[in-house]
Amino acid sequence: MSHTTAKFLAALALLGGGLTLSTHAPAESPAATAAANVCAGCHGADGNSTVTTFPKLAGQQQVYLLRELKDYKSGKRASEIMAPFMADLTEANLEELATWYAKQKPAPGVAGDPALLKVGKNLYLKGNSKTDVPACASCHEDDGSGYKKFARVAGQHVEYTLEQFRLYASGKRSNGARVMQTVAERMTEQETRAVAEYMASMP
Ligand code: HEC
Ligand code: HEC
């Protein structure tokens, strides 16, 4: 068991025993405490990760988060990094974590490359009729906030998004809707980067 997993389990055990929390976080839920102890190391104290390969979770759709967590646990969504942290969590723990992250305030996005934003915005709102790429906005909403199983994409790190597109296109991420694999296969590298930059720039 890794050090961080041990810390996480200790936090959960403490809460399960009904003991009071440290005075620093008297009103926090078990999930919040667990998140602060383990997940925060990568995803940030409030779910707004600063490392660009670790996805931001703050304000993400609860339904989406829960599905992904369950899929990491079952192995349907493969990740060597995430899997060990799921192993000892119950379904109730996953639900609390999903609910907690969904309630956190997302940090506004930052654009890396303004030159690509125009191309990215056009693709996001209208798709590409020549290559049958559907408008992202039709599922992820105009403002990128998502809805239930449709992930929030606003403000997400470019690095993380590009990696997910590689995983979709190569068929390595196949736990969800088939549409994302199709979308990723049809997009050029330039289009993918442009739309990733645009999504990252959304507030
Ligand atoms: C060592 C760093 C690390 C730790 C600790 C960690 N994660 Fe992750 N997390 C990642 C990485 C990397 C990914 C992207 C993996 C992939 O490509 O599927 C990820 C992905 C996720 C996703 C999917 C997000 C999305 O937009 O699809 C969720 C949800 C998540 N983590 C929740 C958690 C929770 C809850 C914990 C604590 C129990 C946790 N993570 C601990 C690194 C970490
Ligand atoms: C028909 C609906 C639909 C359309 C159109 C669509 N998506 Fe998605 N997208 C989804 C669903 C559902 C998910 C949830 C994850 C999954 O199913 O793999 C998702 C997941 C994603 C993710 C992963 C989010 C994360 O945190 O890991 C990204 C990035 C994404 N979509 C970007 C796009 C972009 C860019 C476009 C347009 C070029 C687009 N999507 C078009 C339905 C759609």
Describe the structure.
- The chain is mainly alpha-helical and 203 residues long.
- It folds into 2 domains: 3-103, Orthogonal Bundle (Cytochrome Bc1 Complex, Chain D, domain 2), CATH 1.10.760.10; 114-201, Cytochrome Bc1 Complex, Chain D, domain 2 (Orthogonal Bundle), CATH 1.10.760.
- The chain has 10 helices and no strands.
- The radius of gyration is 18 Å and the shape is globular.
- 35% of the residues are buried.
- Bound molecules: heme C (HEC) (2 copies).
- Residues 55, 64, 123, 133-134, 136, 138-140, 149-151, 153, 161, 164, 176-177, 179-180, 183, 195 line the site of one heme C.
Rounded mean pLDDT is 87
Gyration radius over CA: 18 Å
Q: What compounds sit in this structure?
A: heme C
Topology as a string of helices (H) and strands (E)? HHHHHHHHHH
Q: Helical segment tally?
A: 10
Estimate the strand proportion: under 5%
Domains, number: 2
